[in-house]
Design goal:
This is Ubiquitin-like 1-activating enzyme E1A. Its main location: nucleus. Pfam families: ThiF. With 325 residues, the chain is of the alpha/beta class. It is built from 12 helices and 10 strands. 40% of the residues lie in helices and 18% in strands. The longest helix has 20 residues. The N and C termini lie far apart (40 Å).
Length: 325
């Protein structure tokens, strides 16, 4: 990302945001390469934001065809059904994103297996990898392949279910600068992998940890065991999900109150994405990726949760939690 300066055209087009976060941050953004795996509604909002901000290149990977669910949450899918034939979600979204900012190189990765059985060198082409709607094993696999590279690749996993959303962040060994009243301060943060973060014993976590964290882990585990993709689980699965909750709580030696039935019921009733929440989560994800690329500003910790019913977001540092809090 280092080396090249902004062109005159880039400086003119991105003048307003250069005034906000500086020319160096814009230069880094304009030379960065982002991969998105899974064109969910939340990711569509994210892609819009970073394309308008002027990311260098954006590569989309999603071989699925258009579905009713995708149409309800992904605004990048054109309304004209006549263009759907033979095109994947990634291809349709690519066409829409190119129109937003011709200066950004938007492309589609083709020919890769849906189970992500490709080498880690594939990810070496990118500075940021974002996955959405991926099964638990896939998230673990992609995150681990990013961490095995010689360069640092920022990894984000995002999920949105109805009025709730979750972002997982792994910036590995991350150095950044944050503003203080008397100037700036250099900081460094060490991030755990997704596997390491979700392996922290529940009994050691503080009571204030969001109930969404536990509920998402239960549903995630249920989907892995029964072979479901995220979003395919519904309210009819509630009895089986509650049994899974009981098993996990017993294995973790914690009370079943750690995972309220009402929260699980909400997530299963509204398993689909809700566009207004997609816009919020996608906006936050866009800001975080820009911060990670530029190295400026306090980044999110391991997890971020948003619940529209409570009207707030919660940042959780799961791997470094203090049980006394």
């Amino acid at each position: 990302m280092d080396g090249e300066e902004l062109t005159e055209q880039e400086t003119a087009v991105y003048d307003r945001q250069i005034r906000v976060w500086g020319a160096d941050a814009q230069r880094r953004l304009s030379k960065s390469h982002v991969l998105v795996y899974g064109m969910k509604g939340t990711v569509a909002e994210f892609c819009k934001n970073i394309v308008l901000a002027g990311v260098g290149s954006l590569t989309l990977l999603d071989v699925r065809a258009v579905t009713e669910e995708a149409l309800s949450s992904n605004f990048l899918i054109p309304p004209d059904e006549s263009v759907y034939s033979g095109k994947s979600l990634a291809e349709l979204c690519c066409d829409s994103l190119k129109e937003l900012n011709p200066m950004v190189r938007v492309s589609v990765e083709k020919g890769l297996a849906a189970n992500c059985c490709f080498g880690g060198e594939f990810f070496d082409k990118f500075d940021v990898v974002v996955v959405a709607g991926c099964p638990l094993p896939t998230k673990k696999l992609i995150n681990e392949k990013c961490r095995q590279l010689s360069k640092r690749v920022a990894f984000y996993a995002v999920e949105c279910r109805d009025l709730c959303g979750e972002i997982f962040v792994d910036l590995q060994n991350y150095k950044y600068v944050k503003k203080k009243l008397d100037g700036t301060m250099k900081c460094e943060a060490q991030y755990p992998s997704f596997q390491e973060a979700i392996s922290v014993p529940w009994l050691t976590l503080p009571r204030k940890v969001s109930k969404l964290y536990f509920a998402m882990r239960v549903i995630e585990k249920f989907e892995e065991v029964v072979g479901r993709k995220p979003g395919e689980t519904c309210i009819q699965d509630l009895p089986a999900v509650l049994r899974m909750k009981k098993e996990l709580c017993e294995a973790q030696s914690v009370s079943e109150s750690h995972v309220p039935d009402a929260v699980l019921e909400r997530l299963l009733t509204g398993a689909r994405e809700f566009p207004p929440v997609c816009a919020i989560i996608g906006g936050i994800l866009g800001q975080e990726v820009i911060k990670a690329i530029s190295g400026k500003g306090d980044p999110l910790k391991n997890f971020f949760f948003f619940d529209a019913m409570e009207g707030k977001g919660i940042i959780e540092d799961i791997a470094n939690s203090d049980p006394e809090n």
